[in-house]
UniProtKB/TrEMBL annotation:
GO MF term set: FAD binding; monooxygenase activity
Protein known as: NAD(P)-binding protein
InterPro entries for the chain: FAD-bd, FAD-dep_Monooxygenase_BioMet, FAD/NAD-bd_sf
Organism encoding this protein: Alteraurantiacibacter buctensis
Keyword Oxidoreductase attributed: yes
Top-level taxon of the source organism: Bacteria
Record keywords: Monooxygenase, Oxidoreductase
Length: 374
């Protein structure tokens, strides 16, 4: 393959950047457009499971994540009042691979964006695609800045609210709310906190994930029928009230809240696009195809896997794009559907007040399946 293979990636999130890295390493000439002129990243921290770590390793980013993130080997389970219930050890899915970890989202964005720029991906910010004209040999794409270019392949990686999905797919799915509001707080990591902590037995489920040598992110899952956002100046008071009954390490998070606290409020939404994921030479990846709630901590992982598998199928088909995109969908569809549906099932059981043991079994069975080779 030569640099004559031209690829456009629409969207500069984890799925888009992973796809750019994988295809650029194979020698494709890659353009990426991102509508946000500042290329901001939203969110606090990211939990990284074994399958996700495997995907990042295969993408060539594991050493960077090890340097800037935090790896752990298990977790502590508490009653909401701080009573320790159990200590768990998470096995590695492969010898030499960490079992789990966390990283701050802005740091992961920095790692991935620096990598794609270093590989020579042409990134244009504040620009997106407006029109697509396909023929047997490629796609002519017109952009919001008035320019137009021709590509062998177009990848829609523009997230859960994908404009590409809405514009080009007649059966385009609409995002739906699952009934849980999440609150995420960035806080200093106590030196003694080496593993994740999870709190049960309360209507609000909570947890703390170490994400670097210096920081953790704490989360609260609040049952809320109405996914209304609140003003920033009210978030500290609301989170303090949501954590009022919590003890143990979560009490320390509550005590650390102040005017400068970083708090991200996000309604948990999902959107699974039924087949097809492609139209001609245009393919959906990541959240544009299979946005999931975070209950299996696998959304980023399956997005990175998308990039790896797409590159592999293009190599295998010698860039017969139609054959490669069909093979990509065949390999990814059921795995990604499983993640979305199982995550939603866990959310519903949490809203029903299911005991933590039941939730643990659901998660354990799912992670066992996701440990299988992609």
């Amino acid at each position: 393959m030569t640099n004559e293979r031209r690829v456009l990636i629409i969207g500069g999130g984890i799925g888009g950047m992973a796809t750019a890295i994988a295809l650029r390493k194979d020698g494709a000439a890659v353009d990426m457009v991102e509508l946000d002129p500042e290329w901001k990243v939203y969110g606090a921290g990211l939990t990284i499971t074994g399958p996700t770590l495997r995907a990042f390793r295969d993408l060539g980013l594991l050493d960077d994540i090890a340097e800037h993130g935090f790896f752990s080997k298990g977790g502590h389970l508490y009653l909401f009042n701080g009573t320790l219930l159990s200590e768990t050890v998470s096995p590695s899915i492969e010898q030499g691979l960490p079992s789990s970890g966390g990283i701050m989202r802005p740091k992961l964005h920095e790692i991935m964006s620096e990598r794609i720029l270093g590989l020579g991906v042409n990134v244009r910010l504040g620009v997106t695609a407006t029109d697509f004209q396909q023929d047997d040999d490629g796609v002519r794409v017109t952009f919001t800045d008035g320019s137009a270019h021709r590509y062998d392949l177009v990848v829609g990686a523009d997230g859960i609210y994908s404009n590409i999905r809405a514009k080009l797919f007649e059966n385009a799915v609409q995002p739906a709310y699952c009934g849980q509001m999440s609150w995420r707080i960035v806080a200093p990591r106590p030196p003694e906190m080496e593993v994740s902590s999870f709190f049960f037995g309360h209507e609000n489920i909570a947890g703390i994930i170490p994400c670097s040598r210096d920081n953790v992110y704490a989360f609260i899952l609040q049952p809320q029928p109405n996914p209304a956002r609140v003003p920033d100046d009210q978030k500290v008071a609301i989170v303090g009230e949501l954590l009022r009954d919590f003890g143990g390490p979560m009490a320390a998070i509550r005590a650390s809240l102040g005017p400068d606290s970083s708090i991200v409020q996000r309604p948990f939404e999902f959107a699974f696009q039924e087949r097809p994921w492609r139209t001609g030479r245009i393919i959906l990846v990541g959240d544009a195809a299979h946005a999931t709630t975070p209950h299996l901590a696998s959304g980023a992982g399956i997005a990175v896997e998308d990039g790896l598998v797409l590159a592999e199928e293009l190599r295998r088909a010698d860039w017969n794009v139609g054959v490669a995109l069909d093979a990509f969908t065949d390999r990814r569809y059921e795995r990604c559907k499983f993640v979305v549906e199982t995550s939603l099932a866990i959310a519903r059981r949490e809203l029903d007040g299911a005991p933590p043991q039941e939730i643990g079994v659901m998660m354990g069975q799912a992670m066992h399946r996701l440990a299988e080779a992609i």
